[in-house]
Amino acid sequence: MSRLVETGRSALRSALERVGRGWGRVQERRPLSTDLLESDDAYLVVFDAPGVRGEDVDVTFLDRTVEVNLERFRDFYDGYDLVFPGRGVSLSGSVTLPRDADVTPEGANATLTRNGTLHVEIPKRGGSSDVDVVEEND
């Protein structure tokens, strides 16, 4: 009887793992959720960026488009086995600013907040460049 139970648990764990990996791939193909805001002086793009560190974020600005690539890692927990690996690890997204946007990457900044959002602020006036990312402190 215990062999039958163990076989059932093994089959369930295998099925959950396959479903979890599939769901992670779906997340990796979907673009990150974003908001685009505008003030008199700048545009602000807010990306959902859960579970990442500043060094794992790449922000690029080119031709009115803000592109973000995130690599996040799963923490290991002593005494626990991963049953459902459902979170994607390579995430990306982009936002194209309005056609009439006149912005400059000089002075642009990106802040990774503690609540899992990435704020990219681009001052108004033209150009293209990489954007530095800083993590919000306590």
UniProtKB/TrEMBL annotation:
It comes from the Archaea. Residues 23-138 form the SHSP domain. Belongs to the small heat shock protein (HSP20) family. This is Molecular chaperone IbpA, HSP20 family. It comes from Halorubrum xinjiangense. PROSITE patterns: SHSP. Gene3D superfamilies: 2.60.40.790.
